[in-house]
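Q: What would this chain look like folded?
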Amino acid sequence: MTSRNNRETVLNKALDAVTQDRNNDYGDPEDNFADIARLWNAYKPGCEFDRLDVAMMMVMVKVARAYTSPTLSDHWIDLAGYAACAYGCSLADEEDAE
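A: My prediction, written as structure tokens:
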């Protein structure tokens, strides 16, 4: 498979994950990440996490995992998906601020 096909496969799988598969299972990422942030805040009093923090920290989790097994496509699919979700969270935060 060519590099272009590999990139396309990763992005298409990430697209499916954030718009269909996981979205159907967990709801909108912006809402789910806000729920996760509330749980993290309860677990770690004194820290103030928000949904964008959740998205960015999940990116870091995937980066750490990709460092260990860089040829596992799941890491790259999830990284692309979390990046898209992070952007959605930033837009939702901007809307909430207005």
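Helices lie at 3-26, 29-43, 51-68, 73-97.
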